[in-house]
Design brief:
The chain contains two helices and no strands. It is rod-shaped, with a radius of gyration of 23 Å. By secondary structure, the protein is mainly alpha-helical. Helices cover 56% and strands 0% of the residues. α1 packs antiparallel against α2.
């Protein structure tokens, strides 16, 4: 099963929006969520490259 980084990012951003308080705990939680959002965004946009099968170069005999 693959991770849905896009959906995870949306939920983390929504959680960050709910932490509107000016208290120390809210500020620390927003900073922690900020780091998580950044990590998820990096994972979302640096997907592993797929395996590509290369055909050999050169002349190929054609069927008549």
């Amino acid at each position: 099963m693959n991770s849905d980084f896009s959906a995870a990012r949306v939920h983390l951003e929504r959680a960050q929006d709910y932490l509107r308080g000016t208290d120390k705990t809210s500020e620390q939680a927003r900073q922690a969520l900020d780091q998580l959002i950044e990590a998820v965004a990096i994972a979302q946009f640096t997907k592993p490259r797929s395996n590509v099968v290369h055909y050999p170069f050169g002349k190929v005999a054609r069927r008549s």
